[in-house]
Every structure is written in structure tokens, then in C-alpha cells.
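pls design
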């Protein structure tokens, strides 16, 4: 064990910063309040606490994995760099025009998403490349240089360069970058042909603009973090979690910080998929509820759903098209403004609403006693008796029940003529129903029946709400993993080092040029391997090749898996067969004699996923768990507080059962077992709640 190095994972959320430290078979976790004004300082303090608890010195740290919401928050709060876009003459307003549609045609007061780059900072230059990459109009280099004074006048810090069809031939984008670097070396530059080398200029320009918008902020933060680690004597490699569920290097994160947008939630989905695999759950629903948001993700065959596009900063939370599109690899999930810090209020009709705004870590919920006065979900949970104020966040945050009760009663209970408990129960029901509705919509849109899934709950607040959420969804099984309170950080430790490369190169199967495609895959493999090898010099790599195919004239593609080898002449028939099979599975039919084309090609290289640790093999004997004590908990049937048993999770052994209603407490969270469920401890330590007969159906 002397040569075994510690592995650290740290996840910055809107309210808490979570750390998980693993050394051999042992694990330690820490949860601290996030420091929004100096996030790197908060990370270093959290790391120091975890290392002190584990008794690990700086020299014993072998790897640090990090996920952060800073890029997301910069976009949501519009706190990124002053950004300009240089684009093809005639295409200045692509970011404004978007899809030329209304995401809600019946909303007369509809507000479209505001571009990150306003019109006065969208500049044009004469040039044109066609869809095949042929230069039709040479780049006007003098015109590029004439834009420099405009960049100076507008105090631009970062520039996105996006030209029409640059994915097919990036020569003009690269030349503009050379000219700007020669004359304005301090400007940050993002090329659309690098950050998103795919067809569809709106998505490509939007992604490039977002990358440019967050790049200076993220580069500065990563630099501060790197300096902090060096000052602490930690020389271990630092890897960053990406939104696609893989790990990447510091250099890649600096160049493409937009790939980190959903890094924290992606770690949670990875954890849920590993838990599902360990317990043999083919269909699972990942439920991650922290201090600011809740995230829900479908897990099928122990794999989270993936997507090639993601929307950020939606003006209508559940409506596609109301946000800014980002064309990046992402684990597909729905995010709801329903976390422990989400603020509750009455709307103009006197109805309880919760979120999406959050009290965050500063000032935090009213119970924190840090200046917050408005009631939050955490305050409601405290009033209902679901949280032990002395043990919250491992005792590092002392809660004041009186403040929580006053805030809930003042803003919700009194206006509705209800007691503080009934007001808190109303807040709980609204937030749980909001999450349940989001899960229903997310499942239906993908043709899935949500009740067929098991719920995997983690994050500081999820175990408190999971059983009630399952009741609303008709789900019969809920799993709360070990160390659920810092689930996303643990998910980081399970993620592979991976990198995805995508290139748009149009090919019709009737005139398939396999040599051009094989050459393209060679380039993509080299690019991906250069990134992955920085983090895994000797690891065996897993390669996945994809083709995004459609019938000629269709607007969107289906994803087809390709063999991991050079394509041969006879593989045209293989591509057709796999496309037909995929298309039939999705749409239940194929179109006879219709011509098929490939629009985009994808390649992913990754190391293997680290398996979730299993419990000891052998039989598990069912016994009744010994309670630690009792505490008052709100009973919705009688609308009164009643004493229920309390259990301490570290004391529970595999096979032991807990009948609901009850609370299972641990340092980072608490699991509420409602009257509709009974819980058992699985061999690997997971709490598995199963609906009693006649309940949850």
C-alpha cells in the first residue's frame, strides 16, 4: 500500500463544494460552502480539509479530478468576457435570427434568448468557402486589419471567429487568427472550426461565441487553481470533468472551456450508471438534487443517454428552442431550478412557487443565519423535521430552526392562513411535483415509461425528497448510494479519460468515397489520442466510431455505430444495413428506395470506466436495524408532527431493514423513508427503498 496514491475529486456547486478522497479501498468525503467570490480559494480549503481528515500529505496525492459550474454560471449571470464575433459578410445576424422560428407560437410576449455577442460587436469580413471547402471568395486581409480599431473601441477581450462552411475548410478562420494574434496578441481567440467543426452555422457560431465568452474567466480560474495546488506542494495531474462524461486535460479545458458547462451533473450521471450496473438495474432514473438545482437523467442498459446538443440559459425552462444552443458532447438530462436553496414565494394568484432563483451559499437559506431572509426548500425541510440542524453538512453548517420557521410562516403560511408546518408542506409538495413533472416530460419525449425505472438518488437534498418523488412517479424502487451527499464528486472518480472529435463531411452512400472517410478518421484519431495520452500515457484505449446519417433531404440525423477499422468497399452495404436497423428502431419503418447520406462523422477515445465498488460477496441475512433515537417528523395524513425512528447510516449492516416512516442520517445527507416504503441495506452499502404492496403503483 505504500506506493498507492490518493485520488481526489472536487465538485463546485452553486451552494456547496464537495470533495471525495479515495486511497486504496478507503474513502473520505467533505462538504463545505462554496465561495462564489473566490472559488479557487474555496476548492483549496475543501481539499485541505479532506486531506487532513484522511491523514494524506501532498506527496501522497496521485490525481485530482475537478468539475465546476463556473462556465455555466458565467453564461446564466452574463458575467463573461466582452466578446466579439468576426463572421462572413452577410451573416452578421445569424446569432439573432437563430432557427427563424418561435419556440412558443402562442405567446404574444415571447422573449427570444439574448445572444452573448450584441450586434455592435458582430463584425463582418469579405470571404466565402462553399460546402465542399472550395474557396469562392478569397479572404480580404486588409478588411480584417481594418476591424482592429473597432475591437479596441469596444474594449473587446475575446474574439470568436466563425465563417460559413469553415468546418469543411478552416483556412480563412486560421488566417484571421494569425493576423489578429500578430497585431493584438493579448486577445483570446476561438475558432468555430476547432470548437465545433460541424455543419449548421447557427449552432456552430453560438458554440464558438459561448466558448469565447467564458474562456478568459475559466483560464484565469484554472490558473489560480493550478497555482494554489503548486503552493500546497501538490504535484499530481489535474483532470477536468466534461459535460460528455469523460475527463480531459487542463490544456484542453483552457482551450475549450465550453465543454465543461455541465461537468458536475455529468459526474452524477456516471455514478448512477455505475450503481445501476452494480445492482443489475437495466432501467434507472438518475436524480441529483443539490443546493441550487435538481438534475434528472435516464439510464438505459447502465449507460446514460448522450446528446450532441445542449441549450443553456433557457428563457422558458422546459421548452426546446428557448435557450442558447451549444453543439458539444453532453450527457442528456433535464435540469430544474429546484435545489435546497431554491426560494419559495406566492405568485400573483396566491399560489406557492419555488425557484428557479436560489439563495446559494451567500446569503443562503434563512436557517443559515448569514443574511438570507426568504424561505427556501431547505428551510421547509427543516420545519418539517427532515433535517437535524446540528448534523447538517456534517456539522459544518449550523442551522437555526427558528429563522426557517419564521421565514416560511411569514412568506407562505400567514398569507394562506396556514401554520408554518402546512406552509412548509406546501413548499415541499410544489417542488416535488415540479421535479416529477420534469421527469415525466423527459421520459415521454424519449418514448420511455418512467414508472419502469428505479430511482438512483444522490446530492445533499435528493435523499430527502426521493421517496416522495418516487410515489408521485409510480416508481417502486429507490436507491441511495453510499456517500450520496457528494455523489457527483464520486462519479468523477468513476469517469474515463476521454475525448470526442466530430467532423462534418458530406457523403452519399451511392457515391461513397471510403478513402476520404478513412483519411478523416485517421486525422480524428490522432487529434483525440493527443489529448487522451496527456492524461493516460500508457492506458489501453477504447475507440468508438459513429456516423450521423439520414435520408437525403431530411433535416436531422440518426446515430449509427461503425466498425473500429478502416472502411472497405463492401462496408457501404454495412452502413445501409445499420442505418435501416437504427431508423426502423426509432420510427418503426424505413423508406424504400430512398437515398441515404452521411452528414457527420464522430470518433471517441477513452480509457475504461472505473467500476463502482461492490460489497462483500456471500449471503446477506435480513435483520431489523437498531434505531439511534426518535425525532418529530411532519405526517401528511394527520397534518401533525409525530415521532419517528432515526437511524445512523454508518451503523447499518447489509441485510438490515428499516420500516417507514423513518430517517436514516449520515454526515452529508439524510434519507427519508416514507410510510409508503421499506428500506434495506444492500451488500454494497446502498440504501434500497422498495414500495410496500399496494403503494408506488
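designed seq:
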Amino acid at each position: 500500500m505504500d506506493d498507492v496514491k490518493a485520488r481526489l475529486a472536487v465538485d463546485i456547486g452553486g451552494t456547496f463544494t464537495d470533495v471525495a478522497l479515495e486511497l486504496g479501498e478507503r474513502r473520505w468525503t467533505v462538504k463545505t460552502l462554496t465561495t462564489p467570490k473566490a472559488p479557487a480559494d474555496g476548492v483549496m480549503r475543501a481539499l485541505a480539509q479532506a486531506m487532513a481528515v484522511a491523514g494524506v500529505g501532498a506527496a501522497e496525492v496521485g490525481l485530482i479530478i475537478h468539475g465546476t459550474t463556473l462556465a455555466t454560471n458565467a453564461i446564466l449571470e452574463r458575467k463573461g468576457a466582452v466578446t466579439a464575433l468576426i463572421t462572413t459578410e452577410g451573416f452578421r445576424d445569424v446569432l439573432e435570427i437563430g432557427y427563424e422560428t418561435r419556440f412558443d407560437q402562442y405567446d404574444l410576449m415571447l422573449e427570444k434568448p439574448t445572444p452573448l455577442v450584441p450586434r455592435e460587436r458582430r463584425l463582418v469580413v469579405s470571404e466565402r468557402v462553399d460546402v465542399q471547402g472550395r474557396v469562392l471568395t478569397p479572404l480580404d486581409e486588409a478588411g480584417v486589419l481594418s476591424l482592429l480599431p473597432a475591437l479596441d473601441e469596444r474594449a473587446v477581450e475575446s474574439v470568436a471567429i466563425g465563417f460559413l462552411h469553415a468546418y469543411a475548410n478552416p483556412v480563412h478562420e486560421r488566417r484571421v487568427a494569425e493576423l489578429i494574434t500578430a497585431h493584438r496578441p493579448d486577445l483570446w481567440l476561438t475558432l468555430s472550426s476547432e470548437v465545433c467543426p460541424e455543419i449548421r452555422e447557427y449552432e456552430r457560431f453560438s458554440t464558438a461565441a459561448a466558448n469565447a465568452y467564458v474562456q478568459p474567466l475559466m483560464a484565469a480560474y484554472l490558473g489560480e487553481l493550478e497555482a494554489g495546488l503548486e503552493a500546497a506542494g501538490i504535484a499530481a495531474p489535474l483532470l477536468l470533468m466534461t459535460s460528455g462524461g469523460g475527463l480531459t486535460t487542463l490544456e484542453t479545458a483552457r482551450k475549450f472551456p465550453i465543454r465543461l458547462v455541465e461537468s458536475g451533473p455529468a459526474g452524477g450521471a456516471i455514478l448512477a450508471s455505475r450503481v445501476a450496473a452494480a445492482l443489475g438495474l437495466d432501467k434507472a432514473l438518475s436524480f441529483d438534487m443539490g443546493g441550487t438545482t435538481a438534475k434528472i437523467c435516464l439510464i438505459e442498459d447502465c449507460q446514460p443517454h448522450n446528446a450532441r446538443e445542449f441549450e443553456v440559459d433557457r428563457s422558458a425552462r422546459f421548452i426546446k428552442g428557448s435557450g442558447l444552443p451549444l453543439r458539444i458532447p453532453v450527457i442528456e438530462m433535464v435540469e430544474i431550478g429546484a435545489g435546497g436553496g431554491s426560494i419559495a414565494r406566492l405568485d400573483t394568484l396566491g399560489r406557492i412557487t419555488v425557484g428557479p432563483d436560489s439563495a446559494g451559499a451567500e446569503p443562503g437559506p434563512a436557517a443559515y443565519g448569514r443574511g438570507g431572509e426568504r424561505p427556501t426548500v431547505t428551510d421547509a425541510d427543516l420545519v418539517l423535521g427532515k433535517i437535524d440542524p446540528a448534523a447538517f453538512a456534517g456539522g459544518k453548517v449550523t442551522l437555526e430552526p427558528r429563522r426557517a420557521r419564521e421565514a416560511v410562516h411569514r412568506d407562505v403560511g400567514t398569507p394562506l392562513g396556514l401554520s408554518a408546518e402546512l406552509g412548509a408542506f406546501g413548499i415541499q409538495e410544489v417542488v416535488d411535483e415540479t421535479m416529477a413533472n420534469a421527469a415525466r416530460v423527459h421520459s415521454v419525449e424519449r418514448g420511455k415509461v418512467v414508472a419502469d425505472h428505479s430511482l438512483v438518488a444522490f446530492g445533499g437534498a435528493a435523499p430527502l425528497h426521493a421517496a416522495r418523488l418516487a410515489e408521485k412517479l409510480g416508481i417502486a424502487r429507490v436507491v441511495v448510494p453510499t456517500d450520496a451527499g457528494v455523489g457527483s464528486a464520486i462519479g468523477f472518480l468513476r469517469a474515463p479519460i476521454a475525448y470526442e472529435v466530430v467532423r462534418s463531411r458530406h457523403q452519399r452512400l451511392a457515391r461513397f468515397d471510403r478513402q476520404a472517410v478513412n483519411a478523416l478518421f485517421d486525422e480524428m484519431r490522432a487529434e483525440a489520442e493527443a489529448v487522451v495520452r496527456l492524461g493516460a500515457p500508457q492506458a489501453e484505449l477504447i475507440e468508438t466510431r459513429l456516423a450521423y446519417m439520414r435520408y437525403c433531404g431530411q433535416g436531422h440525423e440518426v446515430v449509427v455505430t461503425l466498425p473500429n477499422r478502416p472502411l472497405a468497399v463492401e462496408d457501404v452495404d454495412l452502413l445501409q444495413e445499420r442505418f435501416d436497423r437504427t431508423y426502423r428502431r426509432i420510427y418503426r419503418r424505413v423508406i424504400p428506395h430512398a437515398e441515404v447520406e452521411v452528414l457527420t462523422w464522430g470518433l471517441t477515445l477513452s480509457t475504461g470506466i472505473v467500476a463502482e465498488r461492490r460489497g462483500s460477496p456471500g449471503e446477506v441475512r435480513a435483520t431489523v436495524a437498531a434505531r439511534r433515537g426518535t425525532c418529530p417528523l411532519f405526517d401528511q395524513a394527520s397534518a401533525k408532527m409525530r415521532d419517528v425512528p432515526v437511524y445512523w447510516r454508518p451503523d447499518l449492516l447489509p441485510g438490515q431493514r428499516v420500516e417507514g416512516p423513518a430517517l436514516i442520517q449520515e454526515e452529508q445527507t439524510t434519507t427519508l423513508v416514507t410510510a409508503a416504503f421499506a428500506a434495506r441495506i444492500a451488500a454494497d452499502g446502498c440504501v434500497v427503498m422498495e414500495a410496500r404492496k399496494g403503494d408506488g403503483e
